[in-house]
Design brief:
Blueprint (H helix, E strand, L loop, with lengths): L1 H22 L6 E4 L4 E4 L4 H4 L7 H22 L1 H25 L12 H14 L4 E3 L6 E3 H17 L13 H4 L1 E2 L2 E2 L2 E3 L3
Antiparallel strand pairs: 1-2, 1-7, 3-4, 5-6
Helix pairs in contact: 1-3, 3-4, 3-5, 4-5, 5-6
């Protein structure tokens, strides 16, 4: 998964506008995005493809670090096939929650959703369930915390900061607002096309 994410991120350096307009997760409807010079909108394949696009080096770096840290043990315990199914189920579930949240707060603007965060949260949740007593030391603040508590705290932060705090279009399964508005230097501003 890490190799695939990095390879697609490299493709974004060449085909950024096209990849974002076609494969990022867009809200339901059709919208004209001036900076992309494209009409975008939700397509079924975006339920998976958005998870392989990232906004910048920090975004992919942190997601892949989390996938490496928490995914290794999960894959070893579940096996490659079940681990892949878990990851894809988490990616699709996150996309559906994102679509529901964006539909409920459409007034906040039209932005693409991208990144592996939904899949990462599924992997983190599995890690917390499989190894609840394993101690994880956070980078900041540097305190030891049991895996189950890490999952609960992270879930509450995402819930309060994302789904319940959808102000200005920020939802839990896309990069924070500062990344969502700028994707590879492109200001994403959209207006709904009247048909």
């Amino acid at each position: 998964m890490i190799i695939l994410n990095v390879a697609i991120f490299a493709l974004q350096a060449v085909y950024d506008d096209t990849l974002i307009s076609v494969f990022a997760l867009w809200p339901i409807g059709r919208f004209h995005v001036r900076d992309l010079h494209a009409v975008v909108g939700f397509e079924p394949w975006q339920l998976i493809t958005y998870a392989f696009l990232h906004a910048n080096f920090a975004h992919i770096g942190l997601n892949m670090l989390a996938l490496y840290m928490f995914g290794r043990d999960g894959e070893r315990t579940l096996g490659a096939k079940h681990y892949l199914l878990l990851y894809l189920a988490a990616v699709i579930s996150a996309a559906l929650v994102q679509l529901a949240a964006v539909t409920a707060t459409r007034h906040a603007g039209i932005y693409p959703t991208l990144g592996a965060s939904g899949g990462i949260f599924g992997v983190l949740l599995a890690f917390g369930v499989l190894y609840p007593r394993r101690i994880v030391v956070l980078l900041f603040p540097s305190i030891p915390i049991p895996a189950w508590l890490l999952v609960v705290v992270f879930g509450l932060v995402e819930l309060t900061n994302g789904v319940l705090g959808t102000e200005a279009g920020h939802c839990p399964f896309r990069p924070p607002r500062r990344h969502a508005r700028r994707v590879f230097g492109i200001e994403i501003l959209a207006t709904q096309r009247n048909t």
